[in-house]
């Protein structure tokens, strides 16, 4: 029995989750989200898969950013300017990745998921996600 592209992408997202390949999990769930017809919603399972995928991708970068920022402060207090400059460049790279990830999910939420959310549960879920990803942006942009 042939499965739909949507079912195949959901299956592949679950497979990617098992393999802890969260970037690919994001890609599969974005395909599911972007293929929705107008007024069609993600199922609760699909919604959770999307959330888990992005949570893991952003979580790793946030942890990296915190570690690098801490090292940067230590090197600054030691007056080690050469290291500080290298660290700042590296931190900037991580910040660009964080921005790209946040922008990706925020665009998906804004253009696709929030407008088609009909139940209170899904609307709250997506708006909470929106708030979370704006908070993640604020963590390093302030």
Automatic annotation (TrEMBL):
Under SUPFAM superfamilies, the record lists: 14-3-3 protein
In Pfam terms, one family for this protein is 14-3-3
| Superkingdom of this protein's organism | Eukaryota
Q: Where is the 14-3-3 domain positioned along the sequence?
A: 6-142
Q: Which family does it belong to?
A: Belongs to the 14-3-3 family.
What protein does this entry describe? PIB01 14-3-3 protein
